[in-house]
Amino acid sequence: MFLFNVWSSLKLLNLLKKNAEATRLVSYLSHHRNLHNSVSVGEEKVESKRVRIYTRTGDKGKSSLLTGERRPKDDAVFEVLGTLDELNAHIGLCVVYCRSLERSVLTAKLEDIQSSLFDLGAVIASHCSNSEKWKGNFDLAKFRFEHKKVEELEGWIDELEGSLPTLRNFILPSGGLVGAQLHITRAVGRRTERRFWTAFQHTLPAIQDCKDQFETLQCVGQYLNRLGDLLFVAARIAAQETGSPEILYKRPS
């Protein structure tokens, strides 16, 4: 299941409501953001109706993107979205662990990343394989993921690294319960990045004339790359905060 941010325009919301699966996503997101009665879009409010979690529209092995395009569930784009969901779940577990610590510097950052991954998923799910069709659908182009999010991760990496001892050896996944979980999360993040490029490495050259979509997808790839670095540094910070030793690599004798 993919959860997305509140849609950026009333027109787009109406478009999504025509699709049963997208309607489910809007209602589910509204529920989890405590918007039980309505979804605010600009100055207008759209009444949100409770719908069943199951829709039966995917029973034959296909599902819909936000463009309305239906693809097989083993499509590369859905593989990215599923792995992204897995990554977000792992980060959620890291947040739970960090909250158990006293004033961890990681908690707020990880929570912010979780929300950013929602937005990133919306970008991927609103990708249109037909660039001409994309040009005529500017509402979908409002699903943007801007470079400032990449710069934010870079700032956090620099900030966190400043409080760590210089790394002079390879370290093995370790650093106590929180550190080890962050290393697992880092590995899932790198897999998410690989799945993204499997799905989109041939798409980007083909859509260079469609500036919004091209730049947004580029930022998604950059964000996933920086996120892997951030999670590595976060694992080291967690080891430091919990007083857990990092295990150094030793050449087998």
TrEMBL record:
Alphabetical list of Gene3D superfamilies matching this protein: Cobalamin adenosyltransferase-like (1.20.1200.10)
Signal peptide: none
Keyword presence, Nucleotide-binding: yes
Keywords: ATP-binding, Nucleotide-binding, Transferase
Record domain Cobalamin adenosyltransferase-like: where: 53-237
A molecular function (GO) term: corrinoid adenosyltransferase activity
UniProt keyword Nucleotide-binding, yes or no: yes
NCBIfam families from the UniProt entry: PduO_Nterm (TIGR00636)
Family membership noted in the UniProt record: Belongs to the Cob(I)alamin adenosyltransferase family.
Protein name listed in UniProt: Cobalamin adenosyltransferase-like domain-containing protein
